[in-house]
Amino acid sequence: MHVGCLKRVVVERDSVNSISLHENPQSHVPRMMVASGVGLNPAATKLIARNTTLMPDIPGLHALLSITFAPCVEFRTDPKRTRYIGALCGLGWDSETQGPALPDHDMEITFGVEFTKDDISMINQVRAAINLAVREGSWSFDVIRKIQHTAKEKLLRLVQKVRKPIPETPFQQMYRWRMVDPDLLEHPATDNDERDFLTLLCGIELNEHVARVEPEQHAREERMQLLRQHCDWLRSVHGARLKKQDIHCQLCDVMLRNPAELLLHLQTKHHKQQEELLK
User: Fold this and answer.
1) Domains of the chain: which residue ranges?
2) What does the alpha-carbon distance between residue 176 and residue 199 come to, in Å, rounded to a whole number?
3) Cα distance between residue 224 and residue 250, in whole Å
4) Which of 63, 163, 205, 275 is deepest in the core (most CB within 10 A)?
5) Beta-carbon neighbour count of residue 226 at 10 Å?
6) Of 122, 128, 132, 190, the residue nearest 154 (C-alpha)
7) Which residues are registered as beta bridge partners of 109?
8) Contacts of 126 (CB under 8 A, 6+ apart)
9) Is 113 helix (H, G, I), strand (E, B) or coil?
10) What is the pLDDT of residues 19-64, one digit of tens each?
11) What are residue 77's phi and psi, to 5 degrees?
């Protein structure tokens, strides 16, 4: 949370996780620890976590749980809107004060794994089930149990999903609400009810075509760079005294038996035209 981001966090000595061994120390995946209670030391310089439990080593778990159970969530995208890079979680925007409802408790989450529109849709189904169970006091026990079972199944599917890792990209304007153009918001199929405990999440319209093209373009540029380096190498060795061996021109896909043939090949019209295409 914003209020505690500058404070040192310690685990109470009596807690089961006061000393923990990382079973996978080479992993860079953030681990999540939950506590039944959090307080300040007498000097108010440290946060003390009590009755803690270390969560499983699942990539993106801290982000998933944050956006699933936070009262309000606003997603962040990269500048080209090709993917989600994070989310601001908290109590949202207060229309009366024209500011954050409780800014000290807002959390800016940066994603290290990919979250998709399908994930947001399933998260909304979990949130809707929670709202339904909490809002309606007249449900029978069997109905409540069925709602809980449905929410649990969907949540487990979200947790168990293998997600593609992405580079962590911090949002430039952190802890600021209403940073998304309203015209780009993708609203859920079901409207929010004033009695809802958790508002349903709005996605953001992504440039999916750009997201598909960029990896292909990057691979093509990388290939061209390798070919440029190969051509530089061919020019550097054509006059060198090499042992008799075949030389492969990757640009033209031609096998040359010796440096003399290589020299002649470099002067051909076809090879020069292929080199021009690399510029």
Assistant:
1) 1-57, 59-206, 211-277
2) 18
3) 11
4) 63
5) 11
6) 122
7) 87
8) 68, 151, 154, 155, 158
9) strand
10) 666 666 666 778 888 888 888 888 888 888 888 888 888 899 999 9
11) -125, 165
